[in-house]
Request: fold
Amino acid sequence: MSEQPVLACDAVTRWYGQVIGVNGVSCEISPGVTGVLGLNGAGKSTLFKLMAGQLRPSKGRILLLGHDLAQNTGLYRWIGFCPEPDALYESMTGREMLVYLLRLHGFDANEAGRRAASALERTHLTADADRKVAGYSKGMRQKIKLAQAMAHDPRVLFLDEPFNGMDPVSRHESLALIRELGEEGKTVLVSSHILHEVEQMTSTILLIQHGRILAEGHVSDIRDLIERHPHQVRIACDSPRRLAAVLVGNEDVQGVRIDSDDEHVLAETNRPRTFFASLPGLALDGDVRIRGYTTADDDLKSLFEYLVEDAS
Amino acid sequence: MSAVPPPAMVPFADVFQLVFMASVRELVRRRRLVFIGLAGLIPLFFTWIWRMFGMDFIDAESMLTNLVSSLYIGVLVYLVGIAFGVPTVHDEVEGRTLTYLLTRPVSRIAVYSGRLAAVQLLAGVLLALSLVACFMFAVLGNDGAMSLTLVKTYVNHVWVVLLATILMVGLFAIIGTLFRRPLVWSFLYAFAWEGIVAKVPGRLQTWTLDFHLRNLLLRDEDVQASILEGLKHLLVREVEVSAWVSLAVLLLALVGFSVLGGWIFARREYVIQ
Reply:
């Protein structure tokens, strides 16, 4: 007897008038954390809304533990949804908002209060729980969204871009929390457009582009693809020419050029992991001060382009 | 493999009560309420004018009847109806908080009913308080004299205004649930359909709520009714409809608006971006 998947999508398609949001998606999701990775506008949010019953598929069907969500509103007891939009009940405090939403799950006032306190603690919001949500920072707003999604102890969590706007500390705390939820046996779907962020939570990923699933499986397979594919890093530093000179001689670097703004170096590498490990030493050798670097979006974009080319 | 049985929804009454209480709290905290409250002061201003200049020409009953017919039924119930009714669902959609409600194991009709009842209550209280203030002010202006006719007229006006308010809130809540630009449609309905058609001679006017609301207003033939109504009486032949028929039409509309609004909300797909 095969084990039933927690969530199953069968050839799900969704049109918005003439525009296709999700195109023939079929997948089965099991307990643990699954990262849904795609560029902005790839269809991640549409897929999440379909899976969470917020949108109806134009074709195909979605089953949650064998049930159609559209026919069983009671299934929302098993679902936690963290939407992408930065929208909250601004006139409530964080605690009031959680208690209100928990009570809509059928918990009495005492139990709702207890669960709200626990969710606030897990998201490190206890100290600000009695402040109006309107006064929360972007990171705190993301955390309270996460808290409302998990407070009722759901079996399946949909977290749509939960790290947007979070500071590094909050991001680290939230990554750890999501890992914990996965280890507790919950089915957690997290969408992101940043590969290394997803990598820190899970090794199971689902790549989505133009509303289609491009690849799914272990993150190392994706990494292999990335490492076979040239990888561009844009480095901001105080002396681009000195840094470029040092990089030219490095065996991990395939090409170097100075950006048109004369403030960045564009380096191409096939071995990003070793490149990033050696970058601080190279900067030290060249007496260059690195202000920062960007890779994630371009990296993912080029990977998608590569996969699309490969498939065709 | 058979699926685990799905869990049940949270009982309707619990959801209704929770959403009702949360909506009342939310509305009371809003600055918008203060501005809408100011609209309730407009009749008080007219009562003050009457006290200053009009007491010798118009008695308290006539003044109150004119005020209710021209200002409350003619303008305020629409404005308050739009201000409270349109945001019933529209605020949650515009504020993108609707997702939180729609991802709970609750009946959408219970959510709609809870929010609608909250806005109807607050809108009704606001206009009722305004009427109470006008009445008190008018009685004081009447040297404290309170005739039975005045009390009867006042009680009749209060309940007609309350019925009109909850009716309009229900109607504009539907418009807020249906349309992306509900204010345009609401004002068109209020001041084009109700405002104009209700004054057209013939049976067409019976298709407006305004006609039936005015038909419920107590009018002693000896008491001067609305000045506009008086002019209309002179110009056109009045369509005769019994007050009971009007009451039945309005109650039917009230129930119909609530059911229709809940039905639309329960079936509509909201694409929250």
